[in-house]
Design brief:
Blueprint (H helix, E strand, L loop, with lengths): L1 E5 L4 H12 L3 E6 L2 H11 L3 E5 L5 H11 L6 E4 L14 H29 L3 E5 L12 H23 L5 E5 L8 H5 L10 H13 L4 E2 L3 H12 L2 H13 L3
């Protein structure tokens, strides 16, 4: 059993790799930072291999799939991604477009290509790392929330398509709240509530994916937020999101 993990050089991606190896999987670690990948490969031993790839570039996504088509991959974990905080009129357009390429286009392209392979074999797993943000509009992090909305919506649609076709291929979206990773440093935010440990989130992600769950939300608090969203008007929810995000700056 072999899994491809993007964004494997740190945080949730790194800990998902560890969790899978503990379950007997081989992992192909994918990220931009080759030094981090080699460090993790050394830790995981013969169960790991590395591919340096910047998934924000379309041609590199296509090349990654091409290179790995003969590797008998049975799982894809789309974990590469980042956020950005600030008023929409003040944040960097260049950085936002890079975020869209990483958080949306790369996930879209790799999901489609590997899913087509998995469908031919009628087996395989895809885990798209989204966020609880994917169920909300996020003032102060408008682009990030929008990218995760895309991932949540696309994953849900594919899940239903697979179910209707009686496919054995499984797809899930991991939707955590704050997690103790490098995310907050890159996004220039501070946590307004205690973050979850990334190892805990990774374990829940792997367990949920293998169990065939659609949305994996590894926190009672975040599950409660999702329920509250159904009960209150969208404008009220967005007002609360603004207040919450403002505290992160």
């Amino acid at each position: 059993m072999r899994a491809v993990i993007t964004g494997a050089s740190s945080g949730i991606g790194r800990d998902i790799a560890r969790a899978l190896v503990c379950r007997g999987w081989d992992v192909i670690l994918v990220a931009r930072r080759a030094d981090r990948l080699l460090e993790l490969k050394k830790e995981l031993g013969t169960h790991a291999s590395c591919v340096r790839c910047d998934v924000s570039h379309l041609e590199e996504c296509l090349k990654l799939h091409e290179v790995l088509q003969q590797a008998d991959v049975e799982m894809l974990v789309n974990c590469a991604g980042f956020g950005l905080c600030g008023y929409f009129t003040e944040t960097s357009l260049e950085r936002e477009l890079e975020m869209i390429d990483t958080n949306i286009r790369a996930v879209h392209v790799l999901t489609k290509l590997f899913l087509q392979d998995f469908m031919l074999k009628n087996k395989g797993y895809i885990l798209n790392v989204a966020s609880i943000a994917g169920f909300f509009s996020g003032p102060m992090m408008a682009t990030y929330y929008a990218t995760k909305n895309y991932v949540v919506s696309m994953t849900g649609a594919i899940y239903e398509e697979l179910r209707r076709r009686g496919s054995s291929v499984k797809i899930s979206a991991l939707c955590p709240g704050p997690v103790d990773t490098e995310f907050h440093q890159v996004a220039h935010v501070r946590f307004s509530s205690a973050p979850l440990d990334s190892q805990t989130v990774a374990t829940a992600a792997v367990d949920g994916l293998l169990a065939g769950k659609l949305f994996i939300i590894p926190s009672v608090k975040m599950k409660t937020l999702k329920v509250i969203k159904r009960l209150l008007p969208d404008k009220t929810i967005t007002h609360f999101c603004y207040t919450f995000q403002k505290k992160k700056r």
